[in-house]
Write a structure and sequence with these properties.
26 helices; disordered C terminus; 22 strands; 6-stranded mixed β-sheet; 5-stranded mixed β-sheet; 19% strand; alpha+beta
């Protein structure tokens, strides 16, 4: 892939994302003229970018969309659900086609038919919109009327008039105006006039274009627009009334013709084209071929187009390619059109931006400048080592030399840490690139379920590693869909319990030490542990005795069990028993974990605790028995030494009082499963940490060191061990397990606080 095409695909996905957001804003505020302008500019830019490449169906579709949005800007077309839905479908097609171009180098085989159908729907809106008016001969521009006059009354195909006024500097852009005109198919008339009066001879500029070219063609509009796709801003295209239209306007008779194709008819035909094309090079079975043909024939006959139905019947005997070509021809020659995706399961809306196809990384120039500056300082520090070597060779005092070496080591250590942080920051990407995609997802899911849902986004400026951000969409999508389907009640039930009719979903992100927490919250019905217990037993996932022995928190965690679902039946969004377990698996692959918090009748919050990046972290090395473990300093509140007489047995475990507050105490060796080690000494060494929103004291056997190191996410066998947040190497080559306090304490029961007893 060349650099120009790669840049085009990246910009296309960004424009699709921004246009989708503005269209959703327009749905809530149709009178927002600035939003209309932004959407128009996005489509205009998309069209111009596509025009740089040879993708005629894509260009024609975007040109039709631009015409529709231009009419909306001018106030001649209402900004309603029809226009917004059609524009969103166009963006879906654009996203899919961008993916196809990136992976295959060309548009999908159905692009021609799909683009033609969508473009036809735009033309249908323009011709039948509540604010549109028909174009007749008296309403034509003067240049079109003069050129069409000799052809008035002549029968034939519908004609298109084009006025092309090149820019005065078009020659310097490589344009050949007359060369373009020669490429127009079906030319019937051409007129070339000066665009402005010619200058006097002494002021004549031979390198300035002063032409206004008008022409008439009976070729399809899409073919004409393709010729002028690179100079679309210099072209005006007008549909001329046919001789039949003129006779009808003057009271004449209208000859019989095939009735206009209803949108639903076009959608059914386009679906048959998609089914036939989906087989690719594989042999299309006779049953599928027969079903597609019969569906198309019955649909066409019901719409009064028996001639087209007979064409399909004849093509049936010639095989799938012939039938597909016939259906595409019927769609191309239709009088009206509809979307090929009406009634179709969502293919493009879930991945409008290409998902993991994005391979580039945009970096703030200031971060690159800072990195270059640090490299310069490191070079200076390295040169200092040569100076120290020379001093050593000269026999300088060992004590002074040792101090100088320690200073140089500290300086290089500081620079290496800064350099590492700077390099890692190059991969940090705002979560907004993921969060912005959920407006459309929530809208479509809520509409499909007949619910009114408001999406609130918080913390989208938080940053995480590019790899984490790119893999975050799918697990979040499962959680959001689950919240809409299972979490939020319908409007009737919400009114009965005194809640607003519109449900609320909050998608939020926040920094948590060296990690990041992404949460999805809803204000729905919450998770009822009693219901979960019954459903787990009914589905045979656990025995009744095992479920009865579990507390409510453990039962709630069962929503992540493979095969578990609260849905009574399989639906479009859920019910297959796949979803929440996939969320947990995805979080584990990213080196994170998932937690759930729910209150019956108030709502549920699902949190994904993820590493922000492979970062240089400050680790405290502690001992538990004969082993050493690491704990991130960001999680450590303080280190204290307490007499064992100040640690008291309470309900469920041990606790002590620190600064007037009761703090649960756990022994690290016991958390790690070694309960046979006796207590040593009269004092306990306590590491006070923050875990899961609580302050906890962990008793360790010794404090060994504090180090700066790269912590890598756990992988392989270590990745399946609960409570391990990562691994690193010590200076002697040993592997150090870095513990996640929240994960290692997840299964531990927190003793009751003194004030709760």
């Amino acid at each position: 892939m060349n650099d120009l095409l790669e840049q085009f695909l990246d910009e296309t996905r960004e424009l699709v994302l921004s246009a989708t957001e503005d269209l959703l804003a327009l749905e809530a505020a149709p009178d927002d003229t600035e939003a209309v302008n932004r959407v128009f500019r996005a489509f205009h830019t998309l069209k111009g970018s596509v025009g740089l490449f040879d993708f005629p169906p894509w260009f024609s579709l975007l040109h039709a969309a631009e015409d529709g949005l231009s009419a909306a800007r001018a106030g001649t077309l209402a900004v309603d659900a029809a226009l917004i839905d059609l524009s969103l479908e166009t963006l879906d097609a654009t996203g899919r086609w961008a993916d196809a171009v990136e992976t295959e180098g060309t548009l999908p085989g159905t692009a021609d038919a799909e683009g033609s159908v969508l473009a036809g729907r735009y033309r249908s809106l323009l011709s039948s919109g509540p604010k549109a008016r028909a174009m007749d001969a008296s309403a034509l521009p003067g240049w079109a009327s003069r050129l069409a006059e000799p052809l008035r009354g002549v029968e034939g195909r519908p004609r298109i008039a084009v006025r092309y006024q090149p820019r005065s500097d078009c020659f310097f852009s490589g344009d050949d105006p007359l060369g373009l005109v020669r490429k127009v198919p079906g030319l019937l008339a051409v007129s070339v006039e000066p665009a402005a009066p010619w200058s006097p001879d002494e002021e004549f500029d031979a390198f300035a274009c002063n032409l206004a070219i008008a022409l008439i063609s009976d070729a399809p509009r899409a073919e004409i627009e393709t010729v002028f796709r690179l100079v679309g801003d210099q072209v005006t295209v007008v549909d001329l009334p046919t001789a039949t239209d003129q006779r009808n306007a003057s009271g004449g008779t209208i000859s019989a013709s095939a009735p206009a194709m209803e949108p639903v008819v076009a959608a059914i035909l386009a679906e048959q084209v998609r089914v036939l094309a989906a087989a690719g090079e594989a042999q299309t079975d006779a049953g599928r071929l027969e079903a597609c043909a019969r569906s198309a024939m019955n649909t066409l006959r019901s719409a009064g187009r028996s001639g087209d139905a007979d064409r399909c019947g004849q093509a049936l005997g010639s095989g799938p390619d012939a039938l597909r070509a016939t259906l595409e021809a019927i769609l191309t020659d239709r009088s009206d059109a509809a979307s090929p995706t009406d009634g179709e399961e969502d293919h493009g809306a879930s991945e409008p931006l290409g998902g993991d196809a994005v391979r580039t990384l945009r970096v703030d120039a200031a971060r690159v400048d800072a990195l270059v500056a640090l490299v310069g300082e490191l070079v200076v520090a390295r040169n200092g080592l040569g100076y120290l070597a020379a001093r050593a060779e000269a026999g300088e005092d060992a004590g002074m030399l040792a101090r100088a070496i320690r200073e140089a080591d500290a300086n290089i250590g500081r620079l290496s840490r800064s350099l590492h942080r700077s390099a890692i920051s190059l991969r940090l990407t705002p979560l907004s690139s993921v969060f912005r995609r959920f407006g459309r997802q929530v809208r479509d899911a809520a509409r499909g379920l007949g619910k009114d849902v408001v999406l609130v986004v918080e913390g989208e400026a938080a940053e995480a590693d590019k790899g984490i951000v790119e893999n975050l969409f799918e697990p979040l999508l499962h959680v959001v869909r689950n919240a809409i389907d299972h979490g939020l009640e319908d409007a009737v039930n919400r009114r009965q319990v005194g809640k607003p009719e519109a449900g609320r979903i909050c998608l939020a992100a926040e920094q948590d030490g060296d990690g990041i927490v992404v949460s999805v919250s809803d204000d729905g019905r919450g998770i009822d542990p009693a219901f979960i217990r019954r459903r787990v037993v009914d589905r045979g996932l656990l025995q009744p005795e095992a479920v009865a022995s579990m507390d409510d928190a453990a039962v709630t965690e069962l929503i992540f069990a493979p095969g578990f679902s609260t849905a009574e039946s399989v639906g479009a969004l859920s019910g297959r028993g796949v979803g929440m377990d996939a969320v947990r698996a995805a979080a584990a692959r990213m080196g994170g974990r998932v937690s759930v918090e729910s209150r019956v009748g108030l709502g549920t919050t699902i949190r994904l605790h993820l590493p922000q990046t492979i970062a240089l972290a400050r680790i405290m090395v502690v001992g538990a028995g004969t082993e050493s473990y690491g704990i991130a300093m960001d999680a450590v509140v303080e280190v204290v030494r307490r007499p064992r007489t100040c640690i008291h047995a309470v309900a469920g475990g041990n606790a002590t009082v620190l600064r007037g507050r009761t703090v649960p105490v756990f022994r690290l060796v016991e958390l790690l499963g070694r309960r046979d080690r006796p207590l040593d000494g009269d004092d306990a060494l306590l590491l006070v940490v923050r875990a899961n929103g609580e302050t906890i004291a962990v008793e360790v056997d010794r404090f060994e060191d504090r180090i700066d190191t790269v912590v890598r996410p756990p992988a392989g066998l270590v990745g399946s061990v609960a409570g391990v947040g990562g691994t690193t190497l010590l200076s002697d080559g040993r592997v150090l397990l870095v513990l996640d306090p929240g994960g290692i304490l997840a299964d531990a029961s927190v003793p009751a606080r003194a004030e709760d007893r």
